[in-house]
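re: ur question from yesterday

yeah so i grabbed the chain u mentioned. its 369 aa long if i counted rite. heres the sequnce exactly as i have it in my notes:
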Amino acid sequence: MITPLRLNYKRVDDMPSAPVFLFILVSSKEGIGEYMRSMIIANGVKKHWPDAVIHFALSKHAPYAQSCPFNTFILENSATKQVKAVNDIVSELKPDVVIFDASGRKAQLKHAHESGAKVIFISQHQKKRSRGLKVGRSLVTDSHWVVQPEFAIAPLSVFERFKLWLINRPQPLVTGPIFTNPDESQRGALLAEYDLADKAFVLFSAGSGGHKCNQGYAADLFLDVALHVRDHHKLKPVIVFGDNYPKELPEIEGVVCIRSLANADFINLVSSAKAAVLSGGGTLLQAVAMHVPTLGIAVSKDQPPRVKACLDRDVILSSNLDFSEMCGGVDQLLAPAELARLINKTKEIDSVNGLKVSIADISRLLEEK
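ran it thru and got these structure tokens back, copy pasting raw so excuse formatting
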């Protein structure tokens, strides 16, 4: 079932010269990484093409579905499970570009391709990349973005490279992590809003807020560790709980508790932090790219390889999802010598913000139409 578009919807016929974009992504009551990344790209598109018409297809179960600032189709389930509904949207909109962020059946990619759209598939780890490299998908994909730095994912196998050569398709474009660059004026206003302008603080985020662990919600465990930082290190903890956190936010003396932040604000906070304790999602790679000393914790099944890749490059510390181990990891992280060492290690990596790379690739694809 497809609900009507929002009231801010502009008919495609009213803007014949404006490029039309459709974002189709994994959306649920747990993870939020794909939505945040797609929002960053969508905002980048709007900045580059001010007249662009942007649409999202989101599951009704996603907490952010009702607050998406772009034209929104509300689906009964995540887009990958809604083959006909998504294809019907594509048929109605006839978009210039369809971006499948870690989602999409082959039939959906094929339909978008046959409808005349430029098809972009985004993968964020090796398993998802392998799915995108299947012959049936590759033949109907115009560009495959891997939103990881080179060090965080294994290179293509000889067979994968040969297969792409055989069907005359390009290798995936490794964009690096996609995020909004810090802004000095916005950062200053944000730090003032949370009374952090003249304070050293440690930023905590367990991701979307919906992930669970043996002790309950991972965000609650991160809060317990934040209290350890307040009490033992006399630093101000700032914890971002996430849109999917189901409880009321606690009010705790000496702790800044935030429900959620737009990526631009989140990046401004991370870049200002003395250190960070983060889940092993995309924000971990963003922190590394900004040279922020970080303790990375895998809170979902897709995150251990990303955390391990960062550990192998010696650019983060890590621990298991356990209170005692996390406290020990934070104690090690906040030692002055360790903070300095991690900053220097992250600076050895050639980091690129993937947003610039992705916008350039979209521009190339639109020129081909």
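noticed a couple things. The first helix runs from residue 33 to 48. also The radius of gyration is 21 Å.
anyway ttyl
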